[in-house]
Amino acid sequence: MNRQTIIAANWKMNGTLNLVNEMSNRLNQVKLADGVRVIVCPSFPYLAEMAVKLQHDNIYLGAQNVSEHEKGAYTGEVSTTMLREFAVKYVIVGHSERRNIYKETSLQVAHKVQALLAANITPILCIGESEQERMAGHTETVLAAQLQPVIDEVGIEKFNDVVIAYEPVWAIGTGKTASPEMAQETHQFIRQFLAEKDVNVANKVPLLYGGSVNAQNCEGLFAQADIDGGLLGGASLKVEEFSQICSTVKGS
Ligand code: PGA
Fold first, then answer.
1. What domains lie within the chain, and their CATH numbers?
2. Ligand 1 pocket test: which of 12, 127, 170, 208 has the largest number of ligand atoms within 8 Å of its C-beta?
3. Taking a C-beta distance cutoff of 8 angstroms, is the pair 61, 40 a contact?
4. Are the C-beta atoms of residues 200 and 158 closer than 8 Å to each other?
5. Counting atoms of ligand 1 from 1, which one is nearest the CA of 210?
6. Along the chain (252 residues), what's the average pLDDT of each consecutive run of 10 residues?
7. pTM for the predicted model, two decimal places
8. How many other CB atoms are there within 10 angstroms of residue 216's CB atom?
9. ∠ at Cα 210 (192, 147), nearest 5°?
10. What residues act catalytically?
């Protein structure tokens, strides 16, 4: 099954205008393997500049959040329509930092996915268990509980236009990566969970791994059958390391 390979950069609340310039200059020169696409998700204020500077057929602009509402009295929020004006093609939703720090619920995440799909923007839907949940043997229950409300809200067919990022919370920013085998096992569960609803959709949806991915460990992770790329935080802020990862990743 040929699926798209995706390397997505989640800058989180990091970066500067200078990094926007340096990263885009470097990425514009990167040669990507066939079937590979790169998505760069800087903070909102940098989208406009990044939209102008990124000039590469297979490198796309993404955002890190979006409102589930269309417009109106939602101080501090950003709508899908606004993002579309800056050529944003992907948006990260349900990141564990949004779920844990800002108390976003899976239902709210489902509404955001719905809003994005309605605007023709591809959601990068993040799911993942905490260390405690994994230790207690609840990983699969937790992942299913994060996915199900989205499936209920948009319908399984719409997952043809969704990217899923599995990010074990204990591996994010900690330097502790899941081993390739452990990550593969969980990715296989996620694909199987989707396959019970629709095999074709399950076979097509790109499943990215996230959590302390870097130039050293990415090869082993991306070689796994059900891992179709990565969502990178820390490593995505380093111009040389990130562009090296992008240029060495193989298409499926
Ligand atoms: P990390 O972050 O690569 O710094 O662990 C990944 C993420 O949170 O998306």
1. 5-248 (3.20.20.70)
2. 12
3. yes
4. no
5. 6
6. 92 98 98 97 98 97 98 98 97 98 98 98 98 96 98 98 97 90 97 98 98 96 97 98 97 82
7. 0.97
8. 10
9. 40
10. 95, 167
